Amino acid sequence: MRHPVLTALALAAALCGSAAVEPRVSRATMAAMEKSFDHRIRSIDVSDPFDLLGSTRGVYLEGYGAVFTAEVNLAVGPAISPFRPALTKEQIAKLRQKKLARLPLLKRQMKDALGALAASLDTVPPSEQMVLGVSLDYFSWEERAGLPGQIVMQARRQALLDVTSGRIRDAAIREQEF
After folding, report:
1. Would you say 78 and 87 are in contact if contact means Cβ atoms under 8 Å apart?
2. Sign for the pseudo-dihedral over CA of 24, 27, 32, 37
């Protein structure tokens, strides 16, 4: 007689524990932010666009913040093909210089995007982080000296909001290059 009662209580507890909890940041909101960053990257230089490889992906981590990642090629260069089995040293050097020149543009867009993310993701607590990581794509034959493989920027949402509202001049954005 006692087992059916315990079974019913255990079942009720399991059902209550598995009830869907409304996420702090909806998937639709994250998808809109992903598309916004994609558009930002594609429009840096419309006459010679950056090459966005795939789509930006974002995830909200409860208690930490929002994290977005993307993969970008700073500049599309000449390709090796059966008709061009190798590139000249001049072509390789020219592509490297172009990528070095475009790196500050990408970083500026990343910082601006962090501010836009902070302003748009209003359900993220001010104490949590906004993180944007961009992996940079290179061909094996490229000269990569001075070019990072990845750039990660992060800041507390409140600091980014303070900058966008004009309360402070610059957010404490932690920037790392790998």
Report:
1. yes
2. positive
Residue showing tokens 């599309």: 76
What contacts 34, CB < 8 A, 6 or more positions away?
A: 55, 56, 57, 58, 68
Per-residue pLDDT tens for 142-156?
Answer: 999 999 999 999 999
pLDDT digits (tens, 9 = 90+) for 33-62: 999 999 999 999 889 989 999 999 999 999
Phi, psi of 122 (to 5 degrees): -70, -10
- Share above pLDDT 90 across residues of the chain, in percent, rounded to a whole number: 71
Pairing of strands 129-136, 65-73: parallel
**Upper half-sphere CA count for residue 107 (Cβ side, 13 Å):** 15
59 neighbors 117 (Cβ within 8 angstroms): no
In DSSP notation, 114-165 reads: HHHHHHH-TTS-TTSEEEEEEEEP--TTS--TT--SEEEEEEEHHHHHHHHH
Packing angle of the helix pair 27-42, 89-120 (nearest 10 deg) = 140
Q: Are strands 65-73 and 51-52 parallel, antiparallel or unpaired?
A: antiparallel
